[in-house]
Specification:
Blueprint (H helix, E strand, L loop, with lengths): L1 E9 L12 H20 L3 E6 L8 E4 L5 E4 L7 E10 L3 H12 L13 E5 L9
Antiparallel strand pairs: 1-5, 1-6, 2-5, 3-4
Length: about 130
């Protein structure tokens, strides 16, 4: 089964609060994420993972009646914003939850786990007769 694990961060002022962390705290956070990704690669579970630019750089797009894109934003109204994601191929939802908990435990500016919310959703497959 394939799952998307989405890391949510507090909305704040529309910028990544991580940009105000000390270099040491930032390096520890990134090292945690790199270690997690290396473990997932070793286990054959990682399909893809990316961090995202801050929401201040995002645009919410809808189509106008004439087919042209209409810009809104910078992002959808929410208490949090999507900071990054993993797509994993695992045998069970429970394994996806374990991985999400590991991602959630990334250290923050004081070295303590951030307890970042990680949304876990199964990636749906098209029925074979649709392909």
């Amino acid at each position: 089964m394939k799952y998307m694990l989405m890391m949510h961060a507090p909305k704040g002022d529309g910028d990544w609060q991580i940009s105000s962390w000390t270099p040491e705290a930032f390096k520890a956070h990134i090292a945690h994420m790199k270690t997690l990704n290396q473990q997932l690669i070793k286990n054959g579970e990682l399909v893809g993972a990316e961090g995202l630019a801050p929401p201040g750089d995002a645009k919410l797009i809808r189509v106008a009646p004439n087919g042209a894109p209409v810009t809104d934003g910078p992002f959808a109204e929410a208490k949090e914003f999507l900071a990054g994601y993993w797509i994993v191929q695992v045998d069970s939802a429970e394994r996806a939850y374990q991985i999400a908990a590991l991602a959630s435990s990334a250290p923050g500016p004081d070295g303590k786990p951030l307890v970042i919310p990680i949304e876990v959703r199964q990636v749906m497959d098209l029925p074979p007769d649709i392909m």
